[in-house]
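thought: fold this chain, then report.
action: predict
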Amino acid sequence: MTSPTFTARFRCAEGCDFQAPLTEVVYRCGRCGGLLEVDHDLDALRRRSPEEWKALFESRFRTGPWPLGSGVWGKKEWVYPELATENVVSMYEGGSPLLRLDRYAAQIGLEDVWLKECGVTHTGSFKDLGMTVLVSAVKEMRARGKKIRAVACASTGDTSAALAAYCAAAGIPSVVLLPRGKVSTAQLVQPIANGALVLELDTDFDGCMKVVQELSLTPDIYLANSMNSLRIEGQKTLSIELVQQLGWKAPDWIVIPGGNLGNASAVGKGFALMKALGLVDRLPRLVVAQAENANPLYRALTAAGRAPGPEVEVAPVRASRTLASAIQIGAPVSARRALRALAAMDGLVEQASEQELSDAAARADRAGAFACPHTGVALAALEKLAARGTIRRGDRVVVISTAHGLKFSEFKVGYHEGTLTGVAGNLANRSVRVAPTLGGVEDAIAARFGRG
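observation:
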């Protein structure tokens, strides 16, 4: 019996009959202007049983032949099946830890909370999962003779780091547009170190996004933002990986921070594919967590007073400054995609204030995590839903940590030193100056823990 041939193509996410090959430089439907999605041949994929897919993915995970040990490319048939292996650009992304936070769960009245540490990857964020697919696709296009001069993105930090690193590995020029003064130093230095052309614009992310979309109208400048559905294909493997780590059991809840909202739609796409192919028998509920200062999706659903669905209009807002700078986005391009995922997964949207996100990150840190401010938004949303009883004590919850806390050391230092504007360090833990003597150290220990 011959092995099935797996194929994928672009199609209109809004239901038009528009289609295009994955090697085409195209981001929107040529008929309605809607975003595209990658459509897989499900009939071919179903020729392997759920157990065969599980066994294949298990055999590759972190140990398979290059590049199949990657958390993304180990699922190549579900991502970009026709891509030539020699054009894969991989940094062994994925395979990130899934941590059980028992002490944190107990503090907020729950029992079964897990943290998917997507920041433990090459450039320190979940953006690597999508960028490996996009840059590999560009390498494939160039190998086939497509004239792509450079790959460009607008970014609040993490996307630019991933783009610069993967393009550097592939030998493809990259251009990143950043909002000046709104990106952490650690994030800014990453694309600089990897040789990208870094352009700081006197605007916010939405302004950078407008310019880069205009720039990408030039066919030889390829767009790398998450409106490009190739990014979503890589990011959807996050869902598959965490279910694999849980013994192929879907959790009850997924909580994820949302900015441009490509991540929420990717999680939904991954679970939808697993359900369609029989690897899971149910979908978890999805929570999209937004910063109160940048909350267009939350505002839209609150104003609509109804369950999420693609017919809800997400009006752009002017995003205010937030410590969760990577999701300081007022006009999310993947809003309709996210609404479809929320509808399919019986989802809801919650928001977090600057104080709430800061305290939630500190509380998780006290239980062994090292949460970035965006993860703090998701944790704060979890805490609020647990307090209301929406998320119940026995529910299994996975919180998606989107970036490594070390990329936001100013946030950590500021919280514990009490220098974050408008935020009280309610759980601050400051270092203690003591005399360089045994007695001085013993007194400090006794002051904290009592005498032995």
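thought: worth noting. DSSP finds 17 helices and 13 strands in the chain.
final: tokens above.
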